[in-house]
Automatic annotation (TrEMBL):
<dbReference type="InterPro" id="IPR001705">
    <property type="entry name" value="Ribosomal_bL33"/>
</dbReference>
<protein>
    <recommendedName>
        <fullName>Large ribosomal subunit protein bL33</fullName>
    </recommendedName>
</protein>
<dbReference type="GO" id="GO:0006412">
    <property type="term" value="P:translation"/>
</dbReference>
<dbReference type="GO" id="GO:0003735">
    <property type="term" value="F:structural constituent of ribosome"/>
</dbReference>
<keyword id="KW-0687">Ribonucleoprotein</keyword>
<dbReference type="GO" id="GO:0005840">
    <property type="term" value="C:ribosome"/>
</dbReference>
<dbReference type="GO" id="GO:0005737">
    <property type="term" value="C:cytoplasm"/>
</dbReference>
<keyword id="KW-0689">Ribosomal protein</keyword>
<comment type="similarity">
    <text>Belongs to the bacterial ribosomal protein bL33 family.</text>
</comment>
<dbReference type="InterPro" id="IPR038584">
    <property type="entry name" value="Ribosomal_bL33_sf"/>
</dbReference>
<dbReference type="InterPro" id="IPR011332">
    <property type="entry name" value="Ribosomal_zn-bd"/>
</dbReference>
<dbReference type="GO" id="GO:1990904">
    <property type="term" value="C:ribonucleoprotein complex"/>
</dbReference>
<dbReference type="Pfam" id="PF00471">
    <property type="entry name" value="Ribosomal_L33"/>
</dbReference>
Length: 49
């Protein structure tokens, strides 16, 4: 079991707004709806490396 840090970047403007610790037991790429202060609204955030 290992954990790694994952940055979540806004899919609209590309800003990295969130960092989370995700377990290794993930089934698919993370895509989360989160608030982007740059866009001023909720946008889809994807994991980056
Ligand atoms: Zn954004």
């Amino acid at each position: 079991m290992s954990q790694r840090k994952i940055a979540l970047a806004c899919s609209v403007c590309g800003s990295r707004n969130y960092t989370i610790a995700a377990s290794a037991t993930r089934t698919q790429r993370l895509e989360v709806n989160k608030f982007c202060k740059h866009c001023g609204k909720y946008t889809l955030h994807r994991e980056t490396r």
